[in-house]
Amino acid sequence: MTLLQVMAADNAADVRVRTTDDTVIAAELAAHGITFEHWPVLDDATATSSDDLLAHYADRVAELNASGRYKHIDIARIHPDDANPEWPAIAKGAREKFLNEHRHAEDEVRYFAAGRGCFYLHLGDEVHAVVCEGGDLLSVPAGTLHWFDMGTRPDFIAIRFFEEEDGWIGDFTGDRISEGFPTLDELLTAP
Ligand SMILES: [Fe+2]
Q: What is the model's pTM?
């Protein structure tokens, strides 16, 4: 379920928008200079190799990267592995990495080929929580304050677009704002 929930930055209980309508989500985000698109999804992405996924999306990727600004395009994937005793620690470690507010020196561009994750965009006096699912592309502009929650059971495949090799490095603000907002798990179970 792709979802946008807009809340007051100083009071997460003040929900100003909650919608699952793709068109509304794209328009709300476009008003803030944020690109949100939906590409047709490949049904068996989880069983598809990363190379085959990149080949499948080659035309879309080429279109998005027509200017050639993205020098590094790769695939990040994480799936629950309950047979692995290390999985809970792996999941926790992966999740906590970007759970605090930060920004990047370049745009953070992600296409979700499968699964889900939630970007929280701190835009002025509001926080826009965007739950992205398979088929969703989101581009967080450079300098935008944000955090990301992959949930307690991380499960996604994302194509990542980087301008620089170290483009993923986060500049953490030290603000604990994210702690006052519903997690991805909570957003999905909210009425
Ligand atoms: Fe980020």
A: 0.95
